[in-house]
Write a structure and sequence with these properties.
3 domains; globular; five-stranded parallel beta sheet; Rossmann fold; eight-stranded antiparallel beta sheet; binds adenosine-5'-diphosphate; 15 helices
């Protein structure tokens, strides 16, 4: 097993990894930017090194600075968390060449599955169901028009290197298609330095259901049930739950086995997520694989009683997974809400600033994964998520009641947060029935006012 791990990340996920390390008897080393000098997670880590100024490009995304810290701290592995360098195949290769384990899949699996167009091809080869769309990248507007005509509108143009809901455009007709094609390319060029795009059928009002996968280097592949992440704004998840109110045990098994088929075909190891869209008839279509641990992983940990970060570290260290498929039983219900420092009434404008007072809910069935404390100033340079509030209960109904109770106790003073929106969601009649889809928040809940 590793004795020391460097965490190439910040905030709540850095803290989550520190916690796993501590329970495993592994020393944790954090790297941080000047803007994160007062990050509360740094006090809990065993060591911390400043690697540069606030802009991510000069700190959390600067491979040479991170590797220099790894050399100085003499670590045997690097955990990339999510975002930043977590799906960067080059970074995984640099780690490999430096004799430092990258806690993630091998660089080839990242190359294949981290690129959405390449992942589509891998899915076709593995016999995984997909929405109709391009086999290759779309090079011209004319090509996009031909594909759209053959599969029928609406279609979605997607950046192959995309992530975080960026580089995507929906088109219901040819004019929107041409505009969307050019916009998606331009956005992707700036955001990902890669303007390649592809086109697929746009499914109206689907659910987003994803399968948590974990695999070791001994050929053991396990799926830990599904998460329903249908409640989104601008293709960004806000609420996640498990199990999905729309998935039967039989469908869970089918989706799980489909996801693992794809993982096996790429010799995938460690943690990953296969994302699917599910239509009203219960058909599911592969969308992409996230080749890293995801924000919403604790939802699966609660219903399957696993520690996914621990399992991920064990897999990267060459150990066998601490559980088998037969051990993983989905029991109870978990819900996660993302608490973001955002002003919901003003277009979800980020609201960084000082937290003047903080009271965190507790009691039965509550989990709070967060790095914030009273007196902490949220820097304006990074993601606006300040924490994840999770509840666990025997049934979905009890979990919703528990989440309402927890949210009503929550006090975060000094900044605006998404808590009021989550209270609204937890009291929404359609959400309570489990009758929502990926456009519900924008088209119904926010539109209702
Ligand atoms: P990203 O990697 O940027 O998060 P994804 O491919 O995971 O992008 O898609 C994010 C969201 O966009 C999905 O959860 C869904 O709401 C929407 N979406 C993507 N592809 C389609 C599609 N073909 N039809 C309908 N909605 C889609």
């Amino acid at each position: 097993m590793f004795s020391k791990i460097l965490i190439a990340n910040r905030g709540e996920i850095a803290l989550r990894i520190i916690r796993a390390c501590r329970e495993m008897g592994i020393k944790s080393v954090c790297v941080y930017s000047e803007a994160d000098r007062n990050g509360p997670w740094l006090e809990i880590a065993d060591e911390a090194y400043c690697i540069g100024p606030a802009p991510s490009a000069k700190s959390y995304l600067d491979i040479s600075r991170i590797m220099a810290a790894a050399e100085i701290a003499d670590v045997d592995a690097i955990h990339p968390g999510y975002g930043f360098l977590s799906e960067n195949a080059h970074f995984a290769e640099v780690c490999q060449h430096s004799g430092i384990a990258f806690i993630g899949p091998n660089p080839d699996a990242i190359k294949t599955l981290g690129n959405k167009a390449a992942a589509r091809a891998a899915a076709v080869a593995a016999g995984v169901p997909l929405l109709p769309g391009t086999k290759d990248l779309v090079e011209t507007e004319q090509e996009a028009i031909e594909i759209a005509n053959s599969i029928g509108y609406p279609v979605i143009i997607k950046a192959a290197a995309g992530g975080g809901g960026r580089g995507m455009r929906v088109a219901h007709n040819e004019i929107a298609l041409v505009n969307g094609y050019l916009q998606a390319r331009a956005e992707a060029a700036v955001a990902f330095k890669d303007d390649s795009v592809y086109v697929e059928k746009y499914l109206e009002r689907p659910r987003h259901v994803e399968i948590q996968m974990i695999a070791d280097q001994h050929g053991n592949y396990v799926y830990c049930g599904e998460r329903d992440c249908s409640l989104q704004r601008r293709h960004q998840k806000l609420v996640e739950e498990a199990p999905s109110p729309a998935i039967s045990a039989e469908m869970r098994r089918k989706m799980g086995e489909t996801a693992l088929k794809l993982a096996r075909s790429c010799k995938y190891t460690t943690a990953g997520t296969a994302e699917f869209l599910v239509d009203k008839q219960g058909n599911f279509y592969f969308m992409e694989v996230n080749t890293r641990i995801q924000v919403e992983h604790p939802v699966s940990e609660l219903v399957t009683r696993t520690d996914l970060i621990r399992a991920q570290i064990m897999a990267a260290a060459g150990e066998k997974l601490p559980f088998t498929q037969a051990d993983v039983e989905v029991r109870g219900h978990a819900i996660e809400v993302r608490i973001n420092a955002e002003d919901v009434d003003n277009g979800f404008r980020p609201c960084p600033g000082k937290i003047t007072d903080l009271f965190v809910p507790g009691g039965p069935g509550i989990r709070w994964d967060s790095h914030i404390k009273a007196g902490y100033s949220i820097p304006p340079n990074y993601d606006s998520m300040v924490g994840k509030l999770l509840v666990f209960a025997d049934t979905r109904e009890q979990a919703i009641i528990r989440m309402r109770r927890a949210l009503s106790e929550f006090k975060i003073e000094g900044i605006k947060t998404t808590i009021p929106l989550h209270q609204k969601i937890m009291h929404d009649a359609n959400f309570m029935k489990g009758d929502v889809d990926t456009s519900y928040i924008e088209k119904v809940l926010l539109a209702k006012g």
